[in-house]
Amino acid sequence: MSGAGHGALMDAVYRRQRFIYDATRKYFLLGRDELLDALAPERGDRVLEIGCGTGRNLILAARQWPEARFFGVDISSEMLRTARGKVEAAGLSERIRLAEGDATRFDPEALFGEAGFERVFLSYSLSMIPDWRGALERALDVTAPEGRLMVVDFGMQDGLPGWVRAGLSRFLALYHVEPQPGLPEALREAAAERGREARVASRYADWSRELEAGPVRPPWPAAARDADAASADG
């Protein structure tokens, strides 16, 4: 599906849903607030959300981290209408900038005058993007060298009863959401190609997955490892 076609589809899905989206999604988009807590940007850091939707996450993050700068991009003009209204109502228009763009090929310099970001995050958006691998790679490419890419999205619910998985799958399909079993490995491969290190964690019986890619941590010196092992032993 082309970017224009996907944008039109998302507009059709959310033209009315955008008014009740935040109130209804809080019960099953698990892990969003934990991701925001973990952002921890430093003073002056640039934080980008890809697939920012109604702006809910950006508003919460901007309040939590008042010394950072925030940016959001989304392919749906309808969702951005809601996001801009919410950002303005929150009094955060000076600190949150929003733009319409395709997650797989947006140009942050053209949209925001920024080449990269110290924090980039996607919250339950990759599973709605047909070319989710392209979006993941673009997210890594706009993450600053010392920055971190953070993702929370649906897992495969492997720890839940079959009827729960089947019911959730039918519900998500109504909104063109498709959890991707290959997401963890795709992140590891794409991160490694860019000299980064990936981390993946499953939560809530694999209802959701938290993924992160950042600079490779240097190995501990042998003396430090021995001291840590001795401390753990006793």
Produce a short descriptive summary.
By secondary structure, this protein is an alpha/beta fold. Helix content is 43%, strand content 22%. 39% of the residues are buried.
Features:
single chain; 234 residues; 7-stranded mixed sheet; globular; disordered C terminus
Helix and strand topology:
Blueprint: H1 3-17, H2 21-25, H3 32-39, E1 46-50, H4 56-64, E2 69-74, H5 77-89, E3 96-100, H6 108-112, E4 117-123, H7 132-141, E5 143-154, H8 162-174, H9 183-193, E6 196-203, E7 208-215, H10 222-233
Parallel strand pairs: 1-2, 1-4, 2-3, 4-5
Antiparallel strand pairs: 5-7, 6-7
Structural notes for this entry:
It is a single chain. The chain has 234 residues and is of the alpha/beta class. Helix content is 43%, strand content 22%. It has 10 helices and 7 strands. The chain has helices at 3-17, 21-25, 32-39, 56-64, 77-89, 108-112, 132-141, 162-174, 183-193, 222-233; strands at 46-50, 69-74, 96-100, 117-123, 143-154, 196-203, 208-215. A 7-stranded mixed β-sheet has the order 3-2-1-4-5-7-6, sandwiched between helices. A hairpin with a 4-residue loop joins strand 6 and strand 7 (208-215). The chain starts with a helix and ends with a helix.
